[in-house]
Amino acid sequence: MSASMSAPAKKREQLEQVTILFSGDSGDGMQLTGSQLTTTSAVLGNDVSTLPDYPSEIRAPAGSVAGVSGFQLHFSHQEIHTPGDNPDVLVAMNPAALRTNLQRLLPNGVLIIDQDAFSARNLAKAGYEENPLDDPALGSRYQLHPVPATTLTLNALEGLDLKHTVKARCKNFFTLGLVYWLYERPLEQSLEWIDKKFSRMPLVAEANRLALQAGYHYGETSEAFAVQWTVPGARGEAGTWRIINGNEAAALGFVTAAQLADKPLVYSSYPITPATDVLNHLSRWKHMDVRTIQTEDEIAAMGSAIGAAYGGAFSVTGTSGPGICLKSEAIGLAVMLELPLVILNVQRGGPSTGLPTKTEQADLLQAMFGRNGESPLPILAAASPGDCFDTAIEAFRIAVRHNTPVFVLSEGYLANGSEPWRIPSLQDMEPIVVRHPADPDGFQPYARDAATLARHWILPGTPGMEHCIGGLEKHPPTGAVSYAPEDHEAMCQLRADKVARVADFIPELEVTGPNEATLLVLTWGGTCGAALTAVQRAGERGRSVAHAHLRYLNPFPRNLEALLGRYEKVLIPELNAGQLALLIRGRFLVDAVSFPKLRGQPFTVREIEARIEELLA
Amino acid sequence: MSASMSAPAKKREQLEQVTILFSGDSGDGMQLTGSQLTTTSAVLGNDVSTLPDYPSEIRAPAGSVAGVSGFQLHFSHQEIHTPGDNPDVLVAMNPAALRTNLQRLLPNGVLIIDQDAFSARNLAKAGYEENPLDDPALGSRYQLHPVPATTLTLNALEGLDLKHTVKARCKNFFTLGLVYWLYERPLEQSLEWIDKKFSRMPLVAEANRLALQAGYHYGETSEAFAVQWTVPGARGEAGTWRIINGNEAAALGFVTAAQLADKPLVYSSYPITPATDVLNHLSRWKHMDVRTIQTEDEIAAMGSAIGAAYGGAFSVTGTSGPGICLKSEAIGLAVMLELPLVILNVQRGGPSTGLPTKTEQADLLQAMFGRNGESPLPILAAASPGDCFDTAIEAFRIAVRHNTPVFVLSEGYLANGSEPWRIPSLQDMEPIVVRHPADPDGFQPYARDAATLARHWILPGTPGMEHCIGGLEKHPPTGAVSYAPEDHEAMCQLRADKVARVADFIPELEVTGPNEATLLVLTWGGTCGAALTAVQRAGERGRSVAHAHLRYLNPFPRNLEALLGRYEKVLIPELNAGQLALLIRGRFLVDAVSFPKLRGQPFTVREIEARIEELLA
Amino acid sequence: MNSEQSPVKLTRKDFTSSQDVRWCPGCGNNAILAQMQKTLPELGVPRENIVIISGIGCSSRFPYYMNTYGIHSIHGRAPTLAMGLKAARPELQVWVVTGDGDALAIGGNHLTHALRRNVDINILLFNNRIYGLTKGQYSPTSRIGARTSSSPDGSIENPVNPVGIAIGSEASFIARTVDIFQKHMSQVLRRSADHRGAALVEIAQNCIIFNDATWGDITDPDNRHDHVLYLEHGKPMRFGKQGEKGIRLNGLRPEVVRVADVGEENLLVHDERASEPTLAYLLSRMGPPDFPTPLGVFRAIDKPVYSQLLSEQVHRAQTEKAADLDALFRQGETWDVT
Amino acid sequence: MNSEQSPVKLTRKDFTSSQDVRWCPGCGNNAILAQMQKTLPELGVPRENIVIISGIGCSSRFPYYMNTYGIHSIHGRAPTLAMGLKAARPELQVWVVTGDGDALAIGGNHLTHALRRNVDINILLFNNRIYGLTKGQYSPTSRIGARTSSSPDGSIENPVNPVGIAIGSEASFIARTVDIFQKHMSQVLRRSADHRGAALVEIAQNCIIFNDATWGDITDPDNRHDHVLYLEHGKPMRFGKQGEKGIRLNGLRPEVVRVADVGEENLLVHDERASEPTLAYLLSRMGPPDFPTPLGVFRAIDKPVYSQLLSEQVHRAQTEKAADLDALFRQGETWDVT
Ligand SMILES: Cc1ncc(C[n+]2csc(CCOP(=O)(O)OP(=O)(O)O)c2C)c(N)n1
Ligand SMILES: Cc1ncc(C[n+]2csc(CCOP(=O)(O)OP(=O)(O)O)c2C)c(N)n1
Ligand code: SF4
Ligand code: SF4
Ligand SMILES: [Mg+2]
Ligand SMILES: [Mg+2]
């Protein structure tokens, strides 16, 4: 059945956008429910942005607060850049979920609850003395909809010959159906998905189908729901689209880069949250000549990455902050060997083991300085889930053009968050040209390209060019070991200049908003979306503010200094204690205002808007 | 015999100071010769400062340039702070030594050469087509003294029943004797040393004694030497003195700190140049309740250091830059556990394996930022060989007062360089007070001291306080694992404030020279001496310049910002690409001028003087 | 590891911390925790003198649930903290709790060195043949061909055997037990605690979520007897419901025989104290499909203990030489300025 | 490691680099270098297809002196670079040169994992039982009691035995030779090169400066014969000037016997291809004072090779599925906007 078929028996209102948070026990399938609504809304033409929030890594007892799993989805008629600040709608499948998330629900927001889950036992697990549903305040503060979701699901599946537990597990589809009705979404996409997913278990498929439809009907028929909202779709850029998260986008980006250069991809990694999925994805793409190595630790992963790069493959190693610590010595070797490879850091909350499943941007200075001696390398950061794809490719372009290891910084928020992604056409992509010298006569291992200062990517197997490279200081351009003062000075300068020259090959920094203004909000990484939205809204209120986003953190774009000069104030929001701010201030002596956040959560638009107002007040 | 006894048959001139460079093959015993003159001069009342320059780590073939070993010594009537820039005197025991060091000898400097070593074979090994001694230019440019040192030594030992090779090896004492005459030094100290050293080999002792005396007589009698110089002694601070190098001073400092707190010292380390000697020293001091652990790698060394600190010992781990890379993950754990321990980094040339035997100061930002997440800790750096002692003690005072890991930065130049050191009296030293809570009732693992914000050092074995700490984020003050946004925010703030508050317990920064001036030269680490001397000389020329030296690099002294404000310009010379400069500029928005040097060698006074003149021109 | 006895009588409750346990229902870790909480009180070691140090992994959450001192350290490094702690405090009883990834992947080197140094600690290796905490990648003990989230086409890595690694590392105490074999585990834990030096105990542990029944052959109650060989010092090696089967040595090759056919006197006799670990090594190789899996103590010998030798060297030095700091300062040439 | 043959006839000179050798005169490394330069040409592998990767240490200076491709990497990590290189370029012949500290201290874990994965590389472990480059601290193979710059009162650490570690790591090829035994070394090197999979060759090497004569018992020409047991596949184990002595097995214990007394037929016969490494392990335990030191190939078996399995999985996937990037992009739900 499709939304159009359902008679609009009720009042209908149109909305610009909705932020909905599905929240329940790890076992309740909230991630699934959320992603179904995501796809359906996207297919409908809405722009979407999501923020899954998994429980801490160890599985917690069912019904406990620690076991709450959430999935926040923001869908809109217009272009959006964040998963939304606070939800307009909260779906709470049990007391723990309610307790954890109620304070985030907007005043008078829609609150849908599976009242069947509010047993004395579950209430106790969530730490409620009394049943919050009995508190009239709840109904007055929010549009409360207690729904006997489990019971209604079981009734709907009465006929089916399935275990009680299996039937009960369908209640997430019942809830999804109800939400579909509430926001007038068609069921087709989910129905098809169910058929595909459970093709081998027709009974289960049937059960989920029925639950979904029952939920939808319940919305239509129940008095409780007086209004049906619609968020009309907007047609995005023409093309074929899909939903993608940052980790898959990065994985696809690496494969694409290798394909553009007609090279094999070697990915060596040791599993670590939140980077592990990149390994999982790539291990499934061997048919693209992807070779994944799961090493014994991160040191081995970095060593293997160097070996693979030396051999001529497109080489990546991925990890998170603690793994970067372990790789740091070998990263220094890669800097010394001047070999092209990419190091991916999907950042998480620190320090130490910290908050493995939470997001943060506090490893920027580690990437810049976390090695002994002066060991410069280019650093890029992705701005959104989809941007992880482009950043991965750009990182390889730089790595092979300048023959250097390149850092790519992602974040848990980008890695697990998702957004619509326009599938690129390969024809439109510029191939990556790689040269390997093969003419032995007069060759020198550390001879350099005049424009980039990059040394050449000489491959073992090339006759007559046998030579040994290593981590000791060298005599330019022969690369022979040398501790001579002038050689060390020259090599340090060359390594620094080589990286600095990357700036000649990257785009200048662009601003959104006025070219000159009172305030510039400067961001990097996943903070882009919230800042952009905040600046746009402030702009709409006539504030003199612009936004610029740095994909390239080392070296900075050539025009950065001049650009900063065009604004009275500079605000730098980042999920750390002021790392980019230190670099900007130290480099350009600009009194940039740091806006740090260390809560394991991305910035909300409102937080940045408020700070903008303060600075402009 | 003593200098006074030797009839002053010749012209005598008095000098303020002399810089002499002993240079020869690794086998020629130059380090020994140099340290003999060092002690004798110090005992005489001269101030001294030395800079040994070992050959690269692998033993090179005898007579080769790679095998040249040098020992530079600066002795003076007045207080000095550096081993001298270029030598006034060069002793070259073979062609390779001459080739390596001649260009450093000052114009018209004294050049003493063992002409016996200038065989065709040795000349070839050094890469000389012709014998440089045949070049008249040499004699015109320098006060050339070719001496048949080997022959004269053999003659002097003719009577002795020793192998030819053993006799020949005494030529370094012959040369030493000659130098002793040249600068009117008494032989006693060396004669005694020889007796002690070779007490079990009386013949060898006799041979070295004779060689030493023969050299002295040669100076007296040979026409070649017309002048005898004297550098009168000056009486330093009253007390007992000795010569000490930075690594031994650091080792003594750590033992002293433990003794002041009546604690055992645990030193866990994996050998690495130039830090290894600290392990070697400490392993010999078990009677001071020193427990050394040579671990399988630096990660294990850091882990053991944490375990030992947790157990209540005074715990140190020492290494060099590449080792810090490996320790970085576990350092983050120490930051999270908030346990008191000291991490010593004897810096060497980088990046990667770099220049293991050369000096550098390029690991400051690694100490600051070389970990995932925001993980602040105090950082101290030693200014001179002897200062390594005080810095080691101060590091422990901070570690236990604030319950935090503390970084101590040393350098190859300080580690191997030596200077006179006044032996401290234990009574004058303030004991280090350590408290371990033992009252279980209402205790909380992460409860904090109001003044320092330090948590308490609770020891296993204390009844009723059993608890588990770890690397995950915590709920203050219980320390229970928590990923709650407010807890992460609070803990990050607490960790940062705790380190910031160290500034309330350290001395304010003092300047040498005018309190307000055009230029302030700001230094850290081993650059102190050269900068101080340069500033003093500039001052004597009436330049408006002062010097300030930072022992505390994190946090900075409270008055630093105000102090910087009193100077028009700030110059920061450092053996890196501008690391302290970045911190000063970024933190205080002061347009500090960076003066980087990356040559594997310490600054010379002249280099800094020249830069000062440029800035004041 | 032997440790000064104490009069206190403690109970399981004394060793149960306030933290609520967060392992998946049905996880083998829960059974192991129960046994530790039951066994430790019987050792008569004051609770405050026990420290449990872990790395990172599901298994490494262990110390949070024990009401002793504990450190949840970083991935693979627990043995290094334990060594430092024993250097500072030899009198403490130190346990290391680790997983197959924590101990054999990232931490492999520290395990080897802790064992060969014979540091006086007890290492409990929870082997579920998978990376549980990161949601199911193959580990160094996963079977070749294992399909996991990071090896969709099957792992191509030959697994290692913790007991084999321990023998290669010259370990002085090596044992194996199973999460759900309560009595057996408690005996093995006690043996380990009583051993002086490094003790490695492999505990076959079930990860019900990502690697369920990986130990099914030995845990399945029905034909367990045919797949498990209980090692007992000085006893001939028999197994099977009625102990009807046995192990006989043919040259250097063990073979399964029916006791009736060959006679018990011809069976291989277990000797955990053999100075040469060859027998222990041979046993470490036994397992499905051709052999039963040996459980119990493979090896338990006396050998110089690192933490003890360290203290002895220090004490000897202290008795031979006064702790005179001033004398240390004055080493080498000195001179006076007055 | 087997490698495609090539017609070129190369000589020792072809493998000698221009760098002048900087080891101490009399260092065992010089002899090893000479043998490698003599042996590699005989393998018929084009010089450009040979890569030598080392860590840090005196031994690790090796690649500078060979006129092949080489990487002087960082301390202990050479096997990891080798693994990555083989993943990218399986056709290259890769050698790892390492020391006892590089391979067994800081690098121990990578060694274990390279061996158990059976990556197709040759690992030459120069064992001088000391840290040479850092000027003489004890290493994991130094004898307990060894007095070195960091153990003035004698080392308190039980040493490990590289062959034992290799067996614990399930290595498929394990051999031992001696720096100055030219012929023997050259045979062993050739065997190693021909082996498919990871090969570990322990080379007893003399550090004349910091640990002179540590291998004196087996290198001393006079009574060498009584202290060395040359392993030969299928041959009874005899040693002594006239081969008058032999090794016999007594249960699991080897014992030295006079052949005349027991008869050759009762001697232990070497079987390097035994599927079970028990014999190799037993041999790894033999050495002074009671036994001769076995030299030669302890073990050489066929076993799945990591680098090969990796390529095979990729090739299989490539034949089963077209390399269609666009299809990859379109995984999951897609929709069109027109
Ligand atoms: C330096 C570092 N690398 C990687 C990780 C991610 N990580 C956490 S636990 C783990 C493996 C856990 O496996 P195992 O040791 O077998 O413990 P289990 O969860 O199976 O009990 C990994 C790879 C980490 N926490 N730290
Ligand atoms: C990360 C790191 N830690 C420590 C060192 C110092 N170091 C260099 S070589 C070496 C040990 C060398 O011993 P071995 O591997 O036996 O080689 P050998 O010199 O004896 O041939 C050490 C500790 C280093 N270079 N890098
Ligand atoms: S994931 Fe596996 S090992 Fe981890 S708690 Fe769950 S069942 Fe246990
Ligand atoms: S120190 Fe020892 S190992 Fe190193 S080169 Fe010299 S003799 Fe050889
Ligand atoms: Mg596991
Ligand atoms: Mg060695």
Gist of the model:
The complex is a heterotetramer, with two copies of chain A (617 residues) and two copies of chain C (338 residues). With 617 residues, chain A is α/β, with parallel strands linked by helices.
Mean pLDDT of chain C, to the nearest integer, reads: 95
Oligomer: heterotetramer
For the biggest β-sheet of chain A, the strand order reads 11-10-12-13-15-14-23
Spans of chain C with pLDDT under 50 lasting ≥5 residues?
1-6
Q: In what order do the strands lie side by side in the largest sheet of chain C?
A: 2-1-3-4-6-5-11-7
Q: Which overall shape of chain C is indicated by the principal axes computed on the Cα atoms?
A: globular
Overall geometric form of chain A: globular
**Measured on Cα atoms, how large is the radius of gyration of chain A?**
27 Å
| Strand residue percentage of chain C | 15-25%
User: Which spans of chain A have pLDDT < 50 for at least 5 consecutive residues?
Assistant: 1-8
Mean pLDDT of chain A: 95
Question: Helical element count of chain A?
Answer: 21
Topology:
The complex is a heterotetramer, with 2 copies of chain A (617 residues) and 2 copies of chain C (338 residues).
Chain A: E1 11-14, E2 17-25, H1 30-43, E3 47-53, E4 68-76, E5 89-92, H2 95-101, E6 110-114, H3 120-126, H4 136-141, E7 143-147, H5 149-156, H6 164-168, H7 171-182, H8 188-197, H9 202-221, E8 227-230, E9 239-245, H10 246-260, E10 265-269, H11 276-282, E11 290-294, H12 298-311, E12 314-319, H13 321-337, E13 341-347, H14 364-369, E14 379-381, H15 387-402, E15 405-411, H16 412-416, E16 418-422, E17 468-470, E18 474-475, E19 480-481, H17 485-500, E20 511-512, E21 517-524, H18 528-540, E22 545-550, E23 552-554, H19 560-564, E24 567-574, H20 579-588, E25 593-596, H21 605-616
Parallel strand pairs in A: 1-8, 2-5, 5-6, 6-7, 10-11, 10-12, 12-13, 13-15, 14-15, 21-22, 21-24, 24-25
Antiparallel strand pairs in A: 2-4, 3-4, 9-16, 14-23, 18-19, 20-22
Helix pairs in contact in A: 1-7, 2-3, 5-7, 5-9, 7-9, 8-9, 10-11, 10-15, 12-13, 18-21
Chain C: H1 28-39, E1 50-54, E2 69-72, H2 78-88, E3 93-99, H3 100-104, H4 108-117, E4 122-127, H5 162-168, E5 173-178, H6 182-194, E6 199-204, H7 216-219, H8 224-227, E7 228-230, E8 238-239, E9 245-250, E10 253-258, H9 259-262, H10 278-284, E11 293-300, H11 306-320, H12 325-329, E12 334-337
